[in-house]
Amino acid sequence: MCGHNQYNKAYVRKYSVQKSVCCFADNSNYIKFKFGIITSYGCIVLPDDPLQKKEVIGNTDVVIKQALEKYGIETAIGKKEDIPGEFDLIVLYSDTWRWDMKKVLDKLEIVFISPEGNKELARSTYNIYKNKELHNFPTPEKEVPKMIKELLGK
User: Fold this and answer.
1) C-alpha–C-alpha distance, residues 81 and 68, integer Å
2) Other residues' Cβ atoms within 10 Å of the Cβ of residue 151
3) How far apart are CA 3 and CA 52, in angstroms?
4) What residues contact 81, with CB distance under 8 A and at least 6 apart?
5) Of 14, 20, 33, 99, whose Cβ has the fewest other Cβ atoms within 10 Å?
């Protein structure tokens, strides 16, 4: 956790991990819907298929920006061609979605990185319940404010 008083300006950017290397990304991870198998003993939930890369789902970057600005931290959302400039904090996030009557947030990770990009300052991870069939249709709007509050130590 980090104290928010030390941050005035943040740079938000989506990331992914490819071959154990963290890099900027312009897509979301997606878990394709898979029907369970109904047997005489009940329903069997099959394991998830590997993640697929999809166009950006949702507006997670905007929700993170709004949450940080509630703490008085001026925030810019980065694009693929941007290079972070004069910032006190780099905020990286990675999102994974699944379908359940609509797209729902399966996993979200937010990481605070030093302005030089060489040190992790704090990390918060949201995961949908182990029992993925029983959930409250999570969204960034529901989860990000709690995660930012945790990251800033509020």
Assistant:
1) 23
2) 23
3) 36
4) none
5) 20
pTM above 0.85? no
Between CA 36 and CA 52 the distance in angstroms is 19
pLDDT in tens, 4-25: 568 899 999 887 655 444 556 6
Q: What is the mean pLDDT of residues 35-50?
A: 67
DSSP string, 115-153: TTS--EEEEEEEE--SSTTS-----HHHHHHHHHHHHTT
Q: If you write DSSP's letter for every residue of the chain in order, what string do you get?
A: ---GGG-SEEEEEEEEEETTEEEE-SSEEEE-----EEETTEEEPPPPPPPEEES--S-HHHHHHHHHHTTT-EEEE--TT----S-SEEEEEEEEEEESSSEEEEEEEEEEE-TTS--EEEEEEEE--SSTTS-----HHHHHHHHHHHHTT-
How far is it, in rounded angstroms, from Cα 1 to Cα 131?
Answer: 28
Are 4 and 71 in contact by the 8 Å Cβ rule? The answer is: yes
Q: What is the pLDDT of residue 21?
A: 43
